[in-house]
Structure formats: C-alpha cells, structure tokens
Amino acid sequence: AKDLQNWGGMDWIVRRDRIARIAFELRERSKDSLLENDLVDLIWKRFGNEEIDARRACARFLRDTAERGGLLESVDDKYGFYTHATFQEFLAGRYLAEEYPAEKLQLFLMEHIGNDLWDEALRLAVGYLAIKGEDKANRLVSQIANAGTNEESKSRALYVAGLALADLQKERRLPDTLNRLVPQIRDFLTANPPSAKVRARFNLGLALGSLGDPRITPLEPVCVPVRASAFRMGTNDDDKKILKDQGTTS
User: Fold this and answer.
1) Stretch 44-58: mean pLDDT, rounded?
2) Which is deepest, 89, 96, 106, 235, by most CB within 10 Å?
3) How confident is the prediction for the chain on average, in pLDDT?
4) Residue 46 CB: number of other CB atoms within 10 A?
5) What does the DSSP assignment read for 50-69?
6) What is the helix (H) or strand (E) element at residue 79, kind and residue range?
7) CB of 10 within 8 A of CB of 75?
8) Which of 43-57, 169-183, 211-225 comes out lowest in average pLDDT?
C-alpha cells in the first residue's frame, strides 16, 4: 500500500487532480481519447516550468497512470476513459467545480450550455459541491440557469439547472434558488405562442416535474367531466380484413 501511495512521486490527491484536468480537456474537445503528444501539449505546464523536463514528466505520468491507475487507459497510443466513461463526466464536473477559474466560469457556461455532452458533467458538478455545502451548489445552479443567450439556449439552461437542483436532497435546495428557478421554467414552458421547440418544452416539463410543478396538486386533482356514451372494443369484420391485407395479422 505504501508503494502504491507513493508511485509517480506524488500523492493520490495530486494524481486525482491531474486526471480530472485530463477528463476536462477531453470533454472540452468532445473527444473520447487523445494521442499522447496531443494530451501532453495541453497539460505539460502542470509538471514544471522547463518545457522539456515537464513534457517528459507529463508523458511518464500518463503511462504510469494508464498502467496502474485503472481509470485512464491507453489503447492504440490514445489515452481515454474507455472502461469508465462515467468517471470522465464526474472528473470533468469536479474540475469545473473545484479548479476552473471562478471569474471565467459564467462565460464557459454560456459557451457550452448548448452542448448536451456537458449536461451530466454540470449536474455532477452541482452534486459534488453539495457534498461540502449547500451555498456553492445552489450558486452554480443559478449560474447554469443564467447561461442562456437566446431562446434555445435559455430553455436548455433552465432544463439542466432544474435537473441539477432536483438531484439535490430537498433540504439542500435553498428556497431562494427554488423560488427563482421554478417560475422561470413554468413561464418558459407555458409561453403562448411557444418560445421553445417541442423537445425543449418536453425537457422543461421533466425539470419542472422533478422540482414540483406548482400548477398540479396531486392530492386534489382538477377533474374534467366526460359524458357517458357507448364505445366499441376490439375489431369488426371490416377492420380485420384491412389489418389482414396490411399483413399485420396472421
């Protein structure tokens, strides 16, 4: 165990952070994997000031991690999270939550909210922050909700933010966040004429339902009377012939 703790000349926390950066870079480029040299180009500065030595240390880290770590793997000289793709989403989300520059985060969200590859990573980022406290998690939810720049991206932002907030335990959803987000989703969903496409409204409905749709009272449903009349079950002879001609019955 001691040998495993010290391999690569760094502790597990540093290794985790370096792997998280790799996960982020892959997701940022919508890639499942990258060649060693391409990955080294992106992250070598984390391994030292002297480029030649840092690049060598970075390449060594990639190889050691692929050989002994289990998360990052090397296939045909390309590194990726082949077996553990969900960990790439989690680590990319963790990098956003913990290490991405706070002053640049809103711009990042605005540029990426339209890319559904980031949906799970953003939700996991909120969940990760909620482990340590509720304020940061709710703040990120609000930032996601405000990331839209047009009607389409606004609906996606509210959808992702709504699901991210719904993922949290109810006591972790701060009233201010909930009271701002739910009316926004409801108004966007019910706008007449619609301001979002059908699929976007469907997603908004999922988010609103997950948080609690204020328009619905499950224990006191609004019923619509339907006048009784006769109805027919099954098929008549003419229907059977049509179905048989279509080849839908034997």
Assistant:
1) 94
2) 96
3) 90
4) 14
5) SHHHHHHHHHHHHHHHHHHT
6) strand 78-80
7) no
8) 211-225
Token pair, residue 241, equals: 């012939």
What pLDDT, on a 0 to 100 scale, did the predictor assign at position 1? 44
Least confident of 5-9, 27-31, 102-106, 227-231: 5-9
Strand, helix or coil for residue 32? coil
Q: What is the DSSP letter of 85?
A: H
Residue carrying structure tokens 């992250």: 43
pLDDT of residue 223: 85
**21, 44 contact by CB (below 8 A):** no
How far, in Å, CA of 196 to CA of 134, rounded?
31
**DSSP bridge partners of 80:** 33, 73
Q: What is the DSSP string of 157-220?
A: HHHHHHHHHHHS-GGGS-HHHHHHHHHHHHHHHH-SS-SS-HHHHHHHHHHHHHH--TT--TTS
pLDDT above 80: residue 9 = no
Is 162 within 8 Å of 113 (Cβ atoms)? no
Tokens 């049509």 found at: 242
